[in-house]
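Limitations
The structure tokens in this dataset are predictions for the assembled complex, not deposited experimental models. Users should treat interface geometry with appropriate caution, especially where small molecules or nucleic acid strands are included. An illustrative entry is reproduced here so readers can see what is and is not provided.
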Amino acid sequence: MELPGFTTGFSTYVKIEGLNPAGSIKMKTAREMILDAEAKGRITPGCELIESTSGNLGVALAAICAARGHRITLVTDPNVNARTLRFIKALGADVVIVDERDRAGGYLATRIDYIRRRTAADPRLVWLNQYANPANAAAHCTHTVGEILAGFGTPDWLFVGTGTAGTLMGCVRGLREAGAATRIVAVDAVGSVTFGARPGRRWIPGIGTSRVPETYVDDGSFHKLLVDERDAVRTCRRVAREHGLLLGGSSGSTLAAVDAFSDRIAPGSRVLAISPDMGEGYLDTVYDDDWVTEHFGADTLAAAERREAAYLPG
Ligand SMILES: Cc1ncc(COP(=O)(O)O)c(C=O)c1O
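Predicted assembly:
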């Protein structure tokens, strides 16, 4: 979908992955990882799956596991959306929330330590490990890139958020294999360590990690940009008010990155930003005035409102 007037001089489009079953881009990752584990004989009768998730993968895995008769435990942290948590539970998965911050200020290391302890104690547990599982990037190499090339054509620029880096690495590989000259921008949050920056507190789930994922390989072929979560919030709220599109927090980061790169993008370019999920799950956070004020300060809210006001018609 095009966002007319989001940028001047070139066209910005969003690939809306929130329309996938289970509501996010993670359906592709979940499906590929389960099919791969089944094909390789890792999932046997009586076994139980376990996985670390910031939310969306959990919903997707819970849905697939319900349909295929697998038991699964999902390990998450307090940044998970309340609605996502209810969604997962409704699908019948078990949920564990770890609440101790790791040394980098996030929760990922705590989540993974928990899984390592559980798998060491119980040989029936199968850890899918989205951070290192090659099926994660393979899903995007085949399906996300396949859909882009078939439905949109070759973008001049592609902006991709980075969490496990599965989407990013899959897109890098798929577009290169297709011979596309697309310039790719990997987008992460300030406070995430994947691009080598210092760790810090983050509030928006999906992108950013406190531990570099094994899947991530910087081969020098893509640009990297860290986006302040305040800009992600402002951009989400701007897109909602100006385009009638309620997107998730990481989509705001990715679109804020398009804005930040705009002076490097040639006039007439077609720029595509991947939007991993929709914004309903963020109504109590990114789209809630009190939450924004409490977490990012009244300035962020005021700046978002100024921008929204500046774009009101008439
Ligand atoms: C909302 C959201 N944005 C971005 C991402 C990042 O995708 P990836 O893990 O493929 O890097 C995720 C992954 O969980 C997500 O849920």
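Some entries come with short summary sentences. For this one: Strands lie at 11-16, 48-52, 71-76, 94-97, 125-127, 157-161, 183-189, 223-227, 270-275.
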